[in-house]
Specification:
alpha/beta, Rossmann fold, 2 domains, five-stranded parallel sheet, four-stranded parallel sheet, 11 helices, 40% helix, 17% strand
Amino acid sequence: MLDDERLDAAGVRLLLKRDDLIHPDLPGNKWRKLKYNLEAARAAGAPRLLTFGGAYSNHIRAVAAAGALFGFETVGVIRGEEHDPLNPSLQFAVDRGMHLVYLDRQTYRRKTEPDVTDQLRAEFGDFYLVPEGGSNALAVRGCAELVGEITEEFDVICCGVGTGGTLAGIAAGLAPGQQAIGFSSLKGGDFLSDDVAALQRAESGKVTDNWAIETGYHFGGYAKTKPELAEFIEDFWLRHGLRLDWVYVAKMMYGIYDLAARRKFPTGTRIVAVVTGPNFQT
């Protein structure tokens, strides 16, 4: 539990679920999303994994690490043009054996259409396709297991949201009376509610009513920040000795503190904040 007078004044308790400590190369929700996808790839006899992402994608990095650890070849389809030298995320992926291929942004928007995937199969052979961000029905199943690892009683659990898989799974794993709140790191993230519902429906055939998404803490959009977020990250580091990932986790944490200060949580609320992973770009 965090010892913080601001939370005490708001009458809430905040605990951290340190999923970032699961594995140095496959932390947090990256592993949870991939776990059952890797099993499915193995069962299908696929020799390689193929996935999509931007040039700074932690998902690309994670799939490359998973391939190296579990004996799959890997292909990363990267949005946009090639840059030399490679940035740290892509260099990490290449060092783990991933083959990179680049798609222009117009083609990338159609990346899952048959003509694009057929061309990729013609070039690379058979593969198991892991969706961008790793979010699918199997990812929901993996993320739902997170809840059972929490030994403390809680009322609300919070996580960052990019593609919706983590929130969809966490909400599916909750006990009656518990609620999940996702904090969108994307500008204009209202569409994410439909994505989370679709992911839950794909996994179990039903949509739970125990979750919501906060869309007002994106700080300009994905992988964007503002001075007040940087100040919050530095203050949190000085107070608690934890450097927050600024892409997802810091935005969630800022939102929790802001909602608490505005008395949006009833007095006595016990909150778990999921630290999904580090930001490998810092």
